[in-house]
Write a structure and sequence with these properties.
Blueprint (H helix, E strand, L loop, with lengths): L25 H8 L3 E5 L4 E3 L8 E6 L2 E6 L5 E7 L4 E2 L1 H6 L6 E4 L3 E6 L1 H10 L1 H26 L3 H16 E3 L4 E3 L5 H7 L4 H13 L3 E4 L2 E4 L2 H8 L7
Antiparallel strand pairs: 1-8, 2-7, 3-6, 3-8, 4-5, 4-7, 9-10, 10-12, 11-12
């Protein structure tokens, strides 16, 4: 990764990008990993389905996933990317309500499957872990609220630039061509992340590609000129 996971510089605390396991004491993390059975999910397979009544939680050990929610009109919103150390499905495990989102493997994923009763009992015995889970939920909500507020006044071009910079910072790896985004996202998924149509995002990607700011392939995106993306994200007149 280019920079790796970090804390929020302005607030000095953990944000939603810090995985759940990284928030726990080593002994608590090991006990959590030992709660369930390991399962392997192939790339593009679905780990959790929106609206399904299952109540287990998943602790990701390896691989990246996308979290999406479907609107009644068929629009798919990309809510988050979750990877090693992250916990998913914990809300249904605690409330026993239907799943609020779908989680799909972007690559081969290895995870620990934890039954909801086992999970709830574990939290009862480990109050520090329960508090960290509550803090994680709060951080995720705050991060979503910040992003919604940030995007509310931005045109699609600026939203896309912000997203690409975030992907490069958190999921980027340096190559001879530039910074390659290590998680494979389709144009539809990029569109879902910036609340825009696939066609609009495709036009903006083409514009960036024509200017030499990015290069793209099948589920491959390399950022060649991050300086230009930063100027676009700050709403300054971009120059080649």
């Amino acid at each position: 990764m280019v920079h790796g996971t970090s804390t929020t510089g302005n607030e000095g605390g953990l944000d939603d990008r810090v995985p759940f396991l990284a928030r726990l004491e080593e002994a608590d993390g090991a006990a959590l990993r030992a709660l369930g059975r390991e399962a392997v999910y192939p790339a593009r397979s679905t780990l959790l389905h929106q609206d399904e009544p299952t109540t287990h939680a998943l602790l990701i050990l390896h691989g990246w996933t996308k979290v999406t929610a479907a609107h009644p009109n068929g629009y798919q919103a990309l809510l988050a990317l979750r990877g090693p150390g992250d916990i998913i499905g914990e809300s249904a495990a605690l409330t026993r309500r239907p799943r609020s989102a779908t989680v799909t493997a972007l690559e081969t994923v290895r995870a620990v499957v934890i039954d909801h009763e086992t999970f709830r009992a574990f939290l009862g015995r480990h109050p520090d872990v329960a508090l960290q889970l509550l803090a994680l939920a709060s951080d995720r909500t705050r991060a979503a609220d910040r992003r919604n507020l940030q995007f509310a006044s931005m045109p699609v071009r600026e939203r896309l630039a912000v997203l690409l910079l975030d992907l490069a910072r958190i999921h980027g790896r340096r190559t001879a061509a530039g910074v390659e985004v290590a998680v494979p996202l389709t144009k539809q998924e990029l569109a879902g992340a910036v609340s825009a149509s696939r066609e609009m995002v495709q036009r903006e990607l083409k514009s960036l590609r024509d200017r030499g700011v990015i290069s793209t392939g099948r589920r491959r995106l390399v950022i060649v000129r991050p300086d230009v993306l930063r100027r676009i994200a700050q709403a300054e007149p971009p120059t080649a």
